[in-house]
């Protein structure tokens, strides 16, 4: 069997100028990066009143068995294109850290990939590197302000702006900096996150233009002073420089699928501590240019799906016309208790327990009043009895389910899914927001836990309660909530698979993200800097004298 | 008076495809990055036996008064082009850290600039970001190896591979990492350098192709084990991944001057702890395509010039046909003792003392047997008497001097200089290497100090002596030497301006750079991570809704 990188390197990739033309872009609206990548710079003078249908692909809670959400997203878009629909994909950019670590890239798989696969998974057009530089320039300016007489009275024990690198590097999670004597700064505790966890990433992907980005950057709270008052980027005076560093990163990137469907790939915020979906500008670009804009949200519907609806939709000004929940029989059996080693065996009793996870994620998405369908990403070992059980479980909660076989067949494996999506997208539907702006933070979280996770409600630590009181004084208490929870369970306990009941979500601490415009509620330990495994993927990656890359996946 | 960025933003920039055609590149030999930048990918099947003349621009020891070396380099090239000579420039890429700090960019100035100025000074084509990622992936792999059972027996007190960021951030000079308990690594002392100080940068700019780069990366010594034996990248097994990360960064970048002279800008190693000049591939590209390849070396002739001759020329396989030493009357007066505040006043006695610095730098370059000329970068306050004194001083040591007025006039201000360069380049000359491979390290350094700096010789610390003994056991003792010395003085004392005599250079410590293939001799304190000043340049940089950038210089 060919590897993803082999399939990608053997593919016929059209010049990006051709893809741009197909997408309806003028030559002056793209800035090529090599022959197969481009930045999109939409001309505001071109009248485009068009708005396509928005298809959101999400999934059950992820398991080590794999769901193939990106692969289904790409396959579905290729199937829509093959059916004669003008289609564009809007996806997140992969982070380099996991590519070199364990997870691999995020460009789909098999015959449902976006290309150039290697470039997209490596530096792409430099967006993440620009974010790293912007984030770390801010950190340097902050420590420099402390060093140069500390005119803002920054309490170095209360700095909340860490540094970032787009590398999986656990040794940088907790550091001390400013050591080495009086000429090398002021010592304090610090740490590094991975770049995708930066608030800069959340800002970049929520901004509607460069001036909106600058306004948001100015609002970032980086520390507290000795009077416990917030210190912002505005106080440090470097928002202009940061905006200059992000002037190209804010432009969405154009690439293509193996079937030459135009794909916009832009931004990649975490789906736990941020909104977990590609940029507002990227999705808006796809909606403006295409009749079907197929996009994706990170992790399961409980995390990425909920944040898409509650955080992104208001900024985008458009709700999904269809939500596709991706599941695999294997993953559902694992949710129902079957061991990973046994997943090739039919196990209807495990599956019967596991489908509850799918059902809760369907119910979560249906809560918003939009049509929901299920895509069962097919594996060779799936039995007919198993597939039938999944279909029935989905239908029992009001979602039609079809199988897709996109890894091996590309768009041809998603014909039924595309047909169903087109049919559902034509249905009239409303949109019911889950919470109101004026709901208290606790009310908002309770609505998320009860309606989306299927749990009882939230419980706040003393620290979290105290924080909310302070936030009320600052006028921050009515901001939307981003729940930072394990992706593996609907609850905050990664080990509770399936669809746990009567659980409480424990909020340990809030992190105010005033630039992004939300409060992050931390439940349990959220890892914002991954580590490398014993045998990192980097050890298997190589390139030969002809430029052929191996080991990238 | 217009600022550099205003002049640059008002310029007519030709499409990079036109510049490429003018330079003699086939359309398939460039990869455009936007409309005004491209990567060059020379087709090995195209026969090009051509080799142009190599013009090296260097300078006196830099002072706070400024010399304008890059500006003269660009102006000279534009003048050569205007005279009908097929010309290309080969320059280093600027580092983002100083752009946001104090020094500003490195794209020339006034009407002698390379453009797009802002892009080149910011992320350009992402080369430095790729180097940062490659460097820090290696650091993460190293700490991960220690964490995952330490199979290589790395002594965490003897790790010599630090981390890098392309930001001026003094608080990262000395850090402790791996804190936070057993799941977050193994605690040890660490620190960050600026990206341009990375051995990866030295390697990228010395490599002749991607496989040569991989070979060099494998050779990097990152630490010592508990038996004090070197641990290399080969042992860690990540050279393939690092090479993949640098697959595009190794390709030279094509841009243009304001006068549309093609310019190759690529790589930017420090001129103290590395060779301080653009990549071998970039200079080779300019030599292959043009009749006159104008290039530059960092800091003064004693640092960048010497390293160009002793480190780069052997890899390039070509010596300079003319060396241009840039000086200003202001800077020479400062070398002779005139205070910075008084530099607008004529002061022939200060100048008489100061020209000794110019003379020593001329003698240093003449030592190699190549023609040397002096370009006096003219300022409005320079008097005729002062200019005459500089000319006479240069002629007294065998170098003709002409004035250039390139900031205000561009190439038109360097007509005399271009004529002189063409004349000298036609002269027959030899090339006498300063030292032989088989000279001992001490012999090599004595030759540098005596012939280039005009000093007495070197003195080694006990530690440095002990290191040389160890290096002899490892077989490293015959590597070329990179002297890491202050750029401000010919001696190792930054305060000794002019041309000090009878001084000794004190070598504190050696740093073996087995990937780059040289030993760095540290004299005094060499700062490899700059700090931000009280009022960083970043505070004045801004961008408006039309994309106009201000405050970049």
Automatic annotation (TrEMBL), chains A, B:
Key words, A-Z: ATP-binding, Coiled coil, Ligase, Nucleotide-binding, One-carbon metabolism
EC number: 6.3.4.3
Family annotation (SUPFAM superfamilies): P-loop containing nucleoside triphosphate hydrolases (SSF52540)
Enzyme class: ligase
Residues annotated for ATP binding in this entry: 63-70
Pathway as given in its UniProt record: One-carbon metabolism; tetrahydrofolate interconversion
Pfam families named among the record's database cross-references: FTHFS
Reaction(s) this enzyme catalyzes, per UniProt: (6S)-5,6,7,8-tetrahydrofolate + formate + ATP = (6R)-10-formyltetrahydrofolate + ADP + phosphate
Keyword Zinc-finger: no
Coiled-coil features, chain-numbered ranges: 341-368
One example GO MF annotation: formate-tetrahydrofolate ligase activity
Recorded family membership: Belongs to the formate--tetrahydrofolate ligase family.
Descriptive protein name: Formate--tetrahydrofolate ligase
Organism: Fructobacillus fructosus
């Amino acid at each position: 069997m060919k590897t993803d990188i082999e399939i990608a390197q053997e593919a016929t990739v059209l010049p990006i100028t051709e893809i741009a033309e197909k997408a309806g872009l003028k030559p002056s609206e793209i800035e090529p990066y090599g022959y197969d990548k481009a930045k999109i710079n939409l001309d505001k003078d071109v009248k485009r009143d068009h708005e396509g249908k928005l298809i959101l692909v999400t999934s059950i809670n992820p398991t080590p068995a794999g769901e193939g959400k990106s692969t289904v997203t790409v396959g579905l878009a290729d199937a829509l294109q093959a059916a004669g629909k003008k289609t564009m994909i809007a996806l997140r950019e992969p982070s380099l850290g996991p590519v070199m670590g364990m997870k691999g890239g995020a460009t789909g798989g098999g015959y449902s990939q976006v290309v150039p696969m290697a470039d997209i998974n490596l530096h792409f057009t430099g967006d993440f590197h620009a974010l790293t530089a912007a984030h770390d320039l801010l950190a340097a300016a902050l420590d420099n302000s402390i060093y140069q007489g500390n005119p803002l009275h920054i309490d170095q024990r209360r700095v909340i702006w860490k540094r970032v690198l787009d590398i999986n590097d656990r040794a940088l999670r907790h550091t001390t900096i400013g050591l080495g004597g009086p000429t090398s700064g002021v010592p304090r505790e610090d740490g590094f996150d991975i770049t995708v966890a930066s608030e800069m990433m959340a800002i970049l992907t929520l901004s509607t233009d460069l001036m909106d980005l600058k306004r948001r950057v100015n609002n970032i709270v980086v520390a507290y002073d000795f009077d416990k008052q917030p210190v912002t980027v505005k106080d440090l005076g470097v928002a202009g420089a940061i905006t200059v560093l992000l002037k190209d990163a804010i432009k969405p990137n154009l690439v293509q699928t193996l079937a030459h469907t135009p794909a916009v790939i832009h931004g990649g915020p975490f789906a736990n501590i941020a909104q977990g979906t590609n940029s507002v500008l990227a999705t808006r670009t796809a909606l403006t240019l295409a009749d079907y804009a197929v996009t994706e949200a990170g992790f399961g519907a409980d995390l990425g799906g909920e944040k898409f609806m509650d955080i992104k939709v208001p900024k985008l000004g458009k709700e999904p016309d269809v939500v596709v929940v991706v599941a695999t029989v294997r993953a559902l059996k694992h949710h129902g208790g079957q061991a990973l080693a046994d997943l090739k065996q039919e196990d209807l009793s495990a599956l019967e327990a596991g489908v509850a996870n799918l059902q809760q994620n369907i119910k979560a998405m249906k809560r918003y009043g939009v049509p929901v369908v299920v895509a069962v990403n097919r594996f060779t070992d799936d039995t007919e009895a198993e597939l039938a059980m999944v279909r029935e479980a989905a239908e029992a909660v009001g979602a039609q389910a079809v199988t897709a076989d996109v890894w091996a067949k590309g768009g041809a494996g998603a014909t039924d899914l595309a047909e169903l999506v087109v049919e559902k997208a034509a249905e009239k539907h409303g949109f019911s927001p889950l919470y109101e702006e004026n709901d208290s933070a606790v009310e908002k979280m309770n609505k998320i836990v009860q309606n989306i996770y299927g749990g009882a409600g939230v419980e706040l630590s003393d620290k979290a309660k105290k924080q909310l009181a302070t936030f009320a004084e600052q006028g921050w208490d009515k901001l939307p909530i981003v729940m930072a929870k394990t992706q593996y369970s609907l609850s905050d306990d990664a080990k509770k698979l399936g669809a746990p009941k009567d659980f409480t979500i424990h909020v340990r601490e809030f992190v105010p993200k005033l630039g992004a415009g939300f409060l992050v509620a931390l439940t349990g330990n959220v890892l914002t800097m991954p580590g490398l495994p014993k045998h990192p993927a980097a050890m298997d990656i190589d390139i030969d004298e002809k430029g052929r890359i191996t080991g990238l996946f």
